[in-house]
Sequence to fold (223 residues):
Amino acid sequence: NAGVTQTPKFRVLKTGQSMTLLCAQDMNHEYMYWYRQDPGMGLRLIHYSVGEGTTAKGEVPDGYNVSRLKKQNFLLGLESAAPSQTSVYFCASTSWYEQYFGPGTRLTVT
Amino acid sequence: TQLLEQSPQFLSIQEGENLTVYCNSSSVFSSLQWYRQEPGEGPVLLVTVVTGGEVKKLKRLTFQFGDARKDSSLHITAAQPGDTGLYLCAGAPPVSGTYKYIFGTGTRLKVLA
Fold:
């Protein structure tokens, strides 16, 4: 039982490049989330999903897109990366009140 | 916009001391969670409190949810170096059918041996 996994763990992009972050969970949870964590800002919600095929915007959705084609996977895409998107990205899934987080992806945009 | 303010932001104490971390808001939450995060890892859930006035204990950690469900505290007794980390609180707004959590900015705790 791996819980929540994220790939890749590290990535460096140049401004304007695109990439997709993959989150997978094996706990059969309906709700999944993408957060970004910046120094002094805590965790901020980017997008979330309440079930397969559904997505919704969070607090800071601009510049990101998501897809939930399968219940166990939640993808976060950056179409044209900007230096302001340098951050650590965390995926989480939820069972009732309990959130389980992945280990994070450290993204640097130069 | 709902906000969760945590205090203090930073805390450095000696092993064996007691400490309290606060999580405050002007908004009501249906539940509140506390997490600990270590460098390079994701947050790990410590506890969830749901009922106003609820107190939960986890070994040397005591968590309390305010009567009005707007605030919470985390008290650590006899802190140990293993308690070092970033402590985050997160609240779920009382909107039916939503599981959107709002996170505080965190309290970074360092316990010196």
